Amino acid sequence: MSKDDTLTNVLYKKTYDEVNQCIQCGYCLPACPTYKSMETESASPRGRINLVKMAAEGKIDLIEDLKVPIDLCLGCRACEIACPVDVPYGSILENAKEVIHDMEVHEKKNHAFKDFALNQLFTKPKSMKVSSDLYYLYQKSGLQKFVRSTNLSEKLVKNVGSFEKALPKVPAKKYQIKRGRLYEAKTENAVKTVALFLGCINDAVFYHVNYYTLELLRVSGCNVYVPEEQTCCGALHAHQGQMKQARQLAKENLTAFEEYAVDTIITNAGGCGAILQEYDHLLKDDTEWMMKAKKFTGKIKDISEVLSSLNSLPFTEKLDKVVTYQPSCHLSNVQKAGAFPEWLIQQIPGVKYIELPSKNSCCASGGIYNIQQYDESMKILGDKMDEVNIIKPDIVVTSNPGCLIQISHGINTYGEGQPESIHLVELLARSCGIYIQ
After folding, report:
1. ∠422-37-342 over CA atoms, to 5°?
2. Shortest CA distance to 367 belongs to which of 155, 200, 170, 169?
3. pLDDT, tens only, 20-41
4. Which of 181, 306, 373, 418 is most buried, by CB atoms within 10 Å?
5. Of 307, 333, 367, which marks where a domain is finished?
């Protein structure tokens, strides 16, 4: 039996029952951003499901026929919310990506840079710290200013280089959270003890987001543990079909957090929170680890959900700003916590909140989708920015680092009036008088 036959059988065993749940009704079509932008059935959830079914039956080739439609999926999972028969599209997509990845490994297709970034950078806290230090130096030395003024990154790396201008200004390194310690509440009595998941990208480049998250928890009465050995959540690996690596990272995080007697683990990135909340599914073939994961996943909460439930933010400053919000797809569609950020924004004194008409449609960041599928991503982002331009907000709020980069890029590329793009926790921090100097 060839490797192709073996992987086809694997796809059949993992997905065939799931793909046959789809009744091809088409309710998913209006919810799918790639179907709306590409207007082709193979770019729709039901179309992709049918292709996976045909590949599992050996009727089409995994690489030649299935790879491109699967790669063009954002993985936003809005189709799951729209589906009347609860087809587990996320699981189908995950298994298809894993089989495609394994076939490419077998065929020795070279993805050296991607593999290095995913497995030698994002998963290594020490490597991420070095990257963070280098980025800080790049910014403070004046080199970033030179690169931006000359558009050097765009000239060197067509299209993708333009994202450099969307990267955040990082604060002094003293605001980077130290691991392996307890940060005590800033209230007279602590009302809750939690643990904080830092993430890899947030900890290296968006550590101001982690800082604001920590301080908001502390002023709300929380003691906060920051486990030393936590690592990358594995979401980017899962998006690329590297499920073996994702499962290993899951095990490392379960071990890192299991010693802490907390009932809540805080995340501030929708993409991270979604996969953390599905570790039990990720490890379903290993009974011992799956049981550990079930305890863990029940503790995962987005910062917006926890702050909403505590309802004790000390708002001290009135923000006379027009604000709109682009939700994280995974926060809404997987964590089912999409209502909390909007509720919090509307509690801020002085804020005029205007809902984005297509708020439930993906911004097309999709992990690194906007890098791998730049043109398709920009079609979707351009439509999103048309709505932002009509609203003319002072601030566009997001709740995921990838979304924050994407929206910032959208403002730089398509924006009118140049509104500010910030994470939800930064907006809340300002209203509570918490600033980074």
Report:
1. 30
2. 200
3. 999 999 999 999 999 999 999 9
4. 306
5. 307
* Residue 437, in any domain of the structure: no
Assigned token pair, 148: 């931006």
Same domain, 133 and 227: no
pLDDT value, residue 3: 55
Token pair, residue 436, equals 């980074």
Q: Are 237 and 245 in contact (CB under 8 A)?
A: yes
DSSP state of 41: G
| 82 found inside a domain | yes
Indicate whether 281 and 159 sit together in one domain. Answer: no
Neighbour-count burial of 123, counting CB atoms closer than 10 A to its CB (0-12 exposed, 13-18 middle, 19+ buried): buried
More confident residue, 416 or 385: 385
**Would you say 106 and 100 are in contact if contact means Cβ atoms under 8 Å apart?**
no
CATH code, domain with 185: 1.20.1050
CATH of the domain at 92: 1.10.1060.10
Query: Cα separation of 204 and 412, whole Å?
Result: 23
State how many domains the chain has: 4
> What is the domain range of residue 65?
3-106
3-state secondary structure of 394: coil
Structural Rg of the chain based on CA atoms: 21
pLDDT digits (tens, 9 = 90+) for 308-361: 999 999 999 999 999 999 999 999 999 999 999 999 999 999 999 999 999 999
What does the DSSP assignment read for 64-94?
IIIHHHHHT-----HHHHH-TT---HHHHHH
Residues in Cβ contact with 323 at an 8 Å cutoff, skipping those fewer than 6 apart: 345, 351, 352, 353, 354, 393, 394, 395, 396, 397, 427
